[in-house]
Amino acid sequence: MTMGAMILLEPDDRALHGYFSRDYAPVVTVAPGDSVRVRTLDAFWSAGPFAGGEHADRPKVPQHRSGYGHALTGPIAVTGAQPGMALEVRIDAVVPASWGTTVSGGRPTSFNTRYGVTDSTVVHTWDLDVTAGIGRNQYGHSVALHPFLGVMGMPPAEAGEHSTIPPRTHGGNLDCKELVTGSTLYLPVPVPDALFSVGDGHARQGDGEVGGTAIECPMDRVDLTFGLREDLTLTGPVAHTPAGWVTMGLGDNQTDATYHALESMFALLGRLYGVSRRDAIPLASVAVDLRVTQIVNHVVGVHAVLPPGAIR
């Protein structure tokens, strides 16, 4: 990927949206090799830190309207992107703002019913010390920050507006905590010009995102560099991260998501090491780890991880 121009993109009236749609006009257009510096709101469209009271009543930015999903910034058009190609997104920087919020309960999901918290909402507010890399909640608990974007993706090929909540093969609400600074994400392009959008900043999240949210936070700075790969035929998201190569599977249940992640990993092992699928299976059995990405967004996510140096 060659280096190009740096373009600035703010979450303003032009760029903020709460659905994926191929019908949305791009707010910026970049060429392969160009970089975009993006600022994002938190997933809740919050106008500022949570100050107590009912979480649902917290102030929202003026662009928010009922029924919206995550607050996304974009779309970004990538010149030359066409279905059948892979979009390459290099994550050069992810810098959170100084505050975040974690919310659980209060929703009639199967998980909250099992947890017994459907009749109340639990809110943890976080002060984020970005310099020290530490987040502290109102109860005095501290965690090391591990910032990434929960949503990075493109709209489905079908016309109309589509929810931001379920992850899809061409990205969206992936919620994969490995997509930190220094990672490169590869996604199959579903629509001409890609129309890529981002949002749902997470200062930290555990695998699974078991309560439904992470430390949801605005991002003061996200630097992304775009490329196109005509040599990659992908069936789902793939990433090269500090944790290693990652292939992501999605499904209605954990078994289906696991098989999708593994099939993608077998294909990746073939590209990396020139092995057949027959030999990729035993290699994966001894070198690849499976992790639950998330279980709370209508679609289950599992990712397979090939750590650095695991196969030599």
TrEMBL record:
It holds the Pfam family FmdA_AmdA. Gene3D superfamilies: Acetamidase/Formamidase-like domains (3.10.28.20). It comes from the Bacteria. InterPro entries: FmdA_AmdA. GO terms for molecular function: hydrolase activity, acting on carbon-nitrogen (but not peptide) bonds, in linear amides. PANTHER family: FORMAMIDASE C869.04-RELATED (PTHR31891). This is Acetamidase. It comes from Rugosimonospora africana.
